[in-house]
Hints:
The chain is α/β, with parallel strands linked by helices and 586 residues long. The protein has helices at 39-53, 77-87, 102-114, 124-137, 149-158, 163-167, 194-197, 222-225, 235-247, 266-278, 299-305, 320-325, 336-345, 363-376, 394-401, 427-441, 444-457, 461-478, 505-539, 563-567, and strands spanning 10-18, 30-34, 61-69, 90-94, 119-121, 204-207, 210-211, 231-232, 252-255, 284-289, 308-316, 349-356, 381-386, 486-490. It folds into 3 domains: 10-167, Rossmann fold (3-Layer(aba) Sandwich); 194-454, pyruvate-formate lyase- activating enzyme; 555-586, no CATH class.
Amino acid sequence: xxxxxxxxxxxxxxxxxxxxxxxxxxxxxxxxxxxxxxxxxxxxxxxxxxxxxxxxxxxxxxxxxxxxxxxxxxxxxxxxxxxxxxxxxxxxxxxxxxxxxxxxxxxxxxxxxxxxxxxxxxxxxxxxxxxxxxxxxxxxxxxxxxxxxxxxxxxxxxxxxxxxxxxxxxxxxxxxxxxxxxxxxxxxxxxxxxxxxxxxxxxxxxxxxxxxxxxxxxxxxxxxxxxxxxxxxxxxxxxxxxxxxxxxxxxxxxxxxxxxxxxxxxxxxxxxxxxxxxxxxxxxxxxxxxxxxxxxxxxxxxxxxxxxxxxxxxxxxxxxxxxxxxxxxxxxxxxxxxxxxxxxxxxxxxxxxxxxxxxxxxxxxxxxxxxxxxxxxxxxxxxxxxxxxxxxxxxxxxxxxxxxxxxxxxxxxxxxxxxxxxxxxxxxxxxxxxxxxxxxxxxxxxxxxxxxxxxxxxxxxxxxxxxxxxxxxxxxxxxxxxxxxxxxxxxxxxxxxxxxxxxxxxxxxxxxxxxxxxxxxxxxxxxxxxxxxxxxxxxxxxxxxxxxxxxxxxxxxxxxxxxxxxxxxxxxxxxxxxxxxxxxxx
Length: 586
């Protein structure tokens, strides 16, 4: 269970739920083990745990917290209703709800509201605590006094402007603090209990060392959710997060900064993590960075020493025209190969995202570009997304203003469905291009090439082949994007999207058994095939000295400009560091 003292006479029950979303048949996408931890869930849990420790509802009220990530946990709605009702007070918090998870969040909220339970979304739960403080502690909510100065400072900023309406029993439906974003220094630690962390494959926890992004990518929602004002945790805070997790046996972390290389405190934070590793903590990190991180002196070297063994890079595209069209000006395609080599030299696996559906994209140009990437860029893992007008992004705002039709079903805004029209491709063509991209990149021949590059660069072929298996198979075997993938799919007959008929057990369970066996067989075949390729590569002595065009060390000389850079020469903007403009090679 969550935190709660033993001296209290009453219990205030809080249940936090990170919703999943629905598959094409309307069933919740759930797994025995998921692959991506929820930092939103950890952050809100940390805030509430601080409230519990400080007895913000009074010394005679214990706050008890349960937290569930629906991607790896079956939420028993009836049991949750009984527990909160039995406690006599509490609420349900729906945490970190993304656009595609909104329909599922509504379905959950509908059932809890039918039982007359308060339901909060995102930051509402902490505000509701102070609403209930007046009822149970017998004093205005603004007088609840936490013990710790840092926590007191944070809460005072978080609730500016809300006490009057809460005391009057008229809590507002929306609380907007984007105009005055709170400082992250001394903020609550985003830590979940071990029993929740271990439901993520590899036992990965998460933390945000910074929030906000200075860039203006039109397809991104970060700048409108976390703001363009960058805020940072201190090295002391990061050490505290790591030590609290390490005390419960968790030392692997997904650092959720959208671009850790632009975190003002990146160096002291990495130095502190290096120190902790020297003290014996076996820290492992997954970082997210931009394509110019190699230009930050010492960044990649220290990231590797701090335990980073995999890095996600926002590559997005290799066509400068597409990048400029979405304000992704920070991506310099002529820097790509040098950046990728810097990570390979540090023996860090590279994992890049690539967006399909920019205005000038065609099936032929996308196929050409994927072949260029395979031939000229030493990327280990490449994942594909459809350009999606996510609510909250500039793209969505502009399309709405121009009255361009967008799909009304929020469940499809998961970056793998086509949600709006394209100036060249039909919806059917765009959808097929997305599906073909996976099979085009993950051919057996290219899997062998990636593994040969890994052996030649000193990367672990087993780690690479495991990732290749997941990213190659998730879409065509499980029917989900790799970022939604988990191990052993669960389908609960009674957890179906609102409005869809529940299937008969006589139909559902036999079909589910066949489906489960078919999926398992496909995974076994794929794993065996890829491992045969790996064994062949590892057994070949020539793999250690393998080289190809992508492994040629990049330089800045005019003669050494990559072929693909020459291909897009006429589209490269005249900017500092750009290679000499040539006539494009077609």
